[in-house]
Amino acid sequence: MLRDIASKTEIAEIDQALDPRFAATPFCQGGFYGPRTKRFGGLLKRVPAVERLVRHPAIMRRVRSVLEPWCDTIQLNLTQALELHPGAPAQFPHRDQDMWRGPTGQIEYLVNVMWPISPFKAENGATLIWPGSHNASSAVKEAQPIAVEAEPGSAILFLGSTLHGAGANMTGAIRRGIIVSYCLGWLKPYENQWLTYPPDAARAFDPELAALVGYQQHRPNLGGATQYAQCVAPMTKLWQRLATGGSFPGCSGGGVARTKVYDRDSATRRRVVMTFSDGRRETYSLAHIERLQDLAR
Ligand SMILES: O=C(O)CCC(=O)C(=O)O
């Protein structure tokens, strides 16, 4: 659990922005989600402020450290807002990574982050977690789950191999939360990110967010469109292009009049200064960008 990593005001604003969509969303069907719950995805386009939760640095650090041993790039698996309405029974305990049918306890495929939007209490269906269940050899059947109580602004992190489920909502109020999950970059995500955020939507995203929703290749050549060259991260390509006198792709330089590289031979201090046609200057670090010299000379 990461306590108080977002402000209560920020979460309250997100909560309010979710209202109209929840009002228009029908109850779920089927035994797994349960008919007393409501859910919808695609949160980055419905409530743009959710980006701050998705890209929260403390979350990203932990997610990367868990998943990067098994992939070169991680990706967003899902964003989902969900409500447990009064009377919702406890959800069937499950491991999210079983969607891919991978062996339990050998590889971690996914990290889940649950952001309580209303306070999570044992009596309103706080997420139930079975401690130690991420280890396949543990005898978890007899173990008692823990109801993870948390306030808005905190984040509950658990592995895709961890047995969990929503608790029963025995109160008269709705329990609201947001799930953000991340998975290995070479998997097919639960939520088809390219359809959820097609190129016209993703173009407005920060390049790192666009990469996270899938606009990147995973080495050696997974997820490419039409190119068959060695994979170079889009950000690296952009910096290289600017450093070697190029302009922003797809527009007339984005107003850039001049670019100049300083400390070209220093791997740590190397940077590019861009002067815009209105006189504005911006400096970007090129630290640790390999092969720059080969390209620029
Ligand atoms: O709502 C929760 O606390 C957990 C939800 C969950 O695990 C699921 O919907 O798969």
Terminal CA distance reads 49 Å
Assign the CATH class of the largest domain.
Mainly Beta
- CATH topology call of the largest domain: Jelly Rolls
Main sheet?
Answer: 5 strands, antiparallel
Strand order across the biggest sheet?
Answer: 1-2-8-3-6
CATH architecture of the largest domain: Sandwich
- The DSSP helix count reads 9
What is the CATH homology-level superfamily of the largest domain?
Answer: q2cbj1_9rhob like domain
Quick one: overall form? elongated
| Binned strand content | 15-25%
Report low-confidence residues grouped into runs of 5 or more: 291-297
Radius of gyration: 22 Å
As for the number of domains, it is: 2
Ligand set = 2-oxoglutaric acid
- Beta-strand segment tally: 11
Blueprint (SSEs and pairs):
Blueprint: H1 8-24, E1 37-41, H2 43-46, H3 50-54, H4 57-67, E2 74-84, E3 110-116, E4 128-129, E5 146-147, E6 156-159, E7 164-165, E8 175-184, H5 193-196, H6 199-202, H7 207-212, H8 234-243, E9 256-262, E10 271-276, E11 281-285, H9 292-296
Antiparallel strand pairs: 1-2, 2-8, 3-6, 3-8, 4-5, 4-7, 9-10, 10-11
Residues 82, 91, 114, 127, 164-166, 177 line the site of 2-oxoglutaric acid (AKG).
Name its key features.
297 residues, 9 helices, 22% helix, single chain, binds 2-oxoglutaric acid, alpha+beta, elongated, Jelly Rolls, disordered C terminus
